[in-house]
Specification:
Shape: elongated
Radius of gyration: 33 Å
Strand content: under 5%
Mean pLDDT: 76
Distance between the termini: 73 Å
Order of helices and strands: HHHHHHHHHH
Structural class: mainly alpha
Number of strands: 0
């Protein structure tokens, strides 16, 4: 594996600004949009991007300086993960590569640590349970009250134009649909036994 400093053409004592400038110059020169169909330029661009993903980050650069080739391979496989969609290819060697497995495990550990701060949602494919006969009766009564109140207050709703009539109509529709649904559950064969 080649030295990342050599890939960018900088010394090991280069400042962050020097590394950034070298990366920009090389990325501009070898970018796939500027070199369509040139596989060598594409590979060079991948190497440059992988090198900068390590050397452009202080923490990763310190790790690379400490571990050498280990950090370099890790950065290369990490960059392949990021650019795999752009280039449309899939590197089957990554599955067998111990460094790629280490990176995947490291990434999964980070996700597990951060999962304490995130809410997870799940989708249940179970259909909703039908209410019992007593629950349907309570629902019928409450929806009947909503329907009756909507009808009663409709004549006074003109005072609160334009919102009042809409609220009353919504209450009437909600009450009526809720009553018909509850009525259906009260007299279904499954719920009459309960």
């Amino acid at each position: 594996m080649e030295d990342l400093y050599q890939v960018l053409g900088v010394s090991k004592t280069a400042s962050a600004d020097e590394i950034k400038k070298a990366y920009r110059d090389l990325a501009f020169k070898y970018h796939p949009d500027r070199n369509p169909g040139d596989k060598d330029a594409e590979e060079q661009f991948k190497s440059i991007s992988a090198a900068y993903s390590v050397l452009g980050d202080e923490e990763k650069r310190a790790q690379y300086d400490q571990y050498g080739q280990y950090g370099s391979q890790n950065a290369y496989t990490q960059q392949n993960a990021y650019t795999h969609a752009y280039y449309g290819g899939y590197n089957t060697q990554q599955d067998e590569d111990p460094y790629w497995q280490w990176f995947t495990n490291f990434q999964n550990q980070g996700r597990q640590q951060n999962s304490n701060y995130r809410y997870t949602y799940s989708w249940s494919s179970e259909p909703p349970k039908a209410p019992t006969r007593s629950e349907a009766l309570v629902s019928f009564v409450s929806k009947a009250v909503t329907f009756a109140m909507g009808l009663y207050l409709f004549r006074f709703s003109w005072i609160l134009l334009p919102i009042g009539p809409f609220l009353c109509i919504a209450a009437i529709v909600n009450g009526f649909t809720g009553m018909t649904r509850a009525f259906k559950y009260i007299f279904t064969s499954e719920n009459t036994k309960k």
